[in-house]
Amino acid sequence: MGKRNKVYSLIEDIAAGLFLTGGLCFIAFEVVMRYIFNSPTTWGTEVSTVMVTWGILLGLSVALRDKHHICVDLLYVIVPKPLRKAIDYFAGIIGVLFSLFYTIGGVMIVLQTWRTGQLSMETGVPMWIYYTVIPISGSLLIIRFIGQLHEEWKKRDNTHEVIYLTPGKENSDEYGNAF
């Protein structure tokens, strides 16, 4: 992993972690204020919800980078490696397209709320600021999906492996499944 990619990953991790941790701290603060001091704030719930949401949406690309998204690999593990490559390319392209539509939709929401001047009822913060995370997280996802496609492309020369027809270890994939 290059230095630029490490810095980018670190910034992603810190941003997602700070928003998530900050939101959870605001939730704890709100619980203390509500149940111990019997004096709930009017803004605490909204701020914590927005911060946790930002943390989750920024964390989507971190999960994609670390391959923590849900996948169904029941059929994937039994197909030959060249077909797996095709599936990986297809999934990457679909991911880029989804992320592109997600980003464009997010930009449209941000512009609409900016044009209408909508404000949060509890804090008075313009709603477009809250919604800005949508195109940001979509852009991060696009970068990660393109990065995965690039990695698959760099490994393209390894797809032409010999498949032996006799039983043995050389006929199994990395999961130990025979083919």
Order of helices and strands: HHHHH
The residue-averaged pLDDT reads: 87
Which term fits the overall shape? elongated
Query: Which residues form runs of ≥5 with pLDDT under 50?
Result: none
Tally of extended strands? 0
Largest sheet: none
- Beta-strand content estimate: under 5%
Alpha carbon gap, first and last residue:
32 Å
Indicate the radius of gyration in whole angstroms. Answer: 22 Å
- How many domains? The number is 2
**Global structural class:** mainly alpha
Number of helices: 5
Report the helical percentage. Answer: 55-70%
Tags for this model:
5 helices, elongated, 179 residues, mainly alpha
Q: Can you describe what's shown?
A:
With 179 residues, the chain is mostly helical. It has 2 domains: 70 residues; 108 residues. It is 66% helix and 0% strand. The protein has 5 helices and no strands. The relative contact order is 0.11.
Short structural summary:
By secondary structure, the protein is an all-alpha fold. It has helices spanning 3-36, 44-65, 81-116, 127-131, 133-154.
Per-chain topology:
Blueprint: H1 3-36, H2 44-65, H3 81-116, H4 127-131, H5 133-154
Helix pairs in contact: 1-2, 2-5, 3-5
